[in-house]
Amino acid sequence: MEENKKEIDFKAIAESNGSGKGGKVVTFILLLICIVLAAAIMIKLFQSTEETAIEAVASDAFTQIVNVSAVEAGYGTFSKVSRLNGEISREGNDITVLPDITTSGIIREVLIKEGDIVKAGDTVAYIDPSRPGQSYMISPVTAKADGIVSDVAVSAGEMVSSSTVIATLTSTDDLIITASVPEKFLGSLRIGMSAEFESVAYPGRLYTGTLAYISPTLNRATRSADIKIEITGDRTGLMDGMYIKLNLETEHIDNAMIVPTAALDTYLGDDVVYTVEDGTAARKVVKTGSSNDTETVILSGLEEGEMVITAGNITNGTPVNVVE
Question: Residue 281 and which of 13, 39, 55, 156 are 20 to 30 A apart at CA?
Fold first, then answer.
């Protein structure tokens, strides 16, 4: 601004234009010009100072360290569980309880009622096979297998023979879970896969089983195949015909690179994760595989041991501090 720095000889200008009224007007105009020029210079200085301050704030914001959570990427076993509906059914026949006598006799006492659970060897009734003139004697009727009493066919005082059915038991040993699996899961199913199920009658109580059968044919209408789950644990309370909710392992991968699903993000249409490198967040494009509610399989783009950020407001290059 060399021109602005030149001194203005107001006196000379005034004398050259006369000392009258016209000279005063010229002097006023020149003063006004000087004031405008000074104001322009001050505004320029203020704008420069403001821009510098904004740049400093932006720089401070960028260099601010963000606390993040991170886990180490590594190999492990991936499991995906699918929720299916199923039903309890029986594969065997009802069990009939017959008298342990060779002739006829009278029922003296019945010890069971419908719905009772009996074990093999339990006494369910007593029969008196005595004949007139013979000594009084009692013969117990015992169950030959475990089961639930579904029918009591006799009552005290009745005459029975060796072929009379005393009671009918529904076996709990031959209970099995039947369900249908969508076609898309069939390729990952294997006999022996573990399963858990819950009966509507007993919410919150989990029962266990294993996959015992996969149908060799597909239902064309539903695009699904029938399966059977063998019950392996406690059967208490389970009954033929019960509706159940089944958790079946429909995918199992050993030695898979796994990261928490929460670590995944997208950038320009690609799946990405952010890792910690030299105190900053580094964006990495990855190829993902199967995923469940909590974990995702990484097929490529990530190395074992890298620290993957799972929580924190970061982008590529953000300075980070890993916290527990």
Answer: 55
pTM over 0.70: no
Q: How is residue 246 written in tokens? A: 């089944």
Q: pLDDT tens across 215-240, in order?
A: 999 999 999 999 999 998 888 888 88
Rounded CA separation 9/111 (Å): 132
- Does domain 95-170 sit in CATH 3.40.190.10? no
Would strands 224-231 and 175-182 be described as parallel, antiparallel, or unpaired?
antiparallel
pLDDT digits (tens, 9 = 90+) for 255-281: 999 999 989 999 998 999 999 988 898
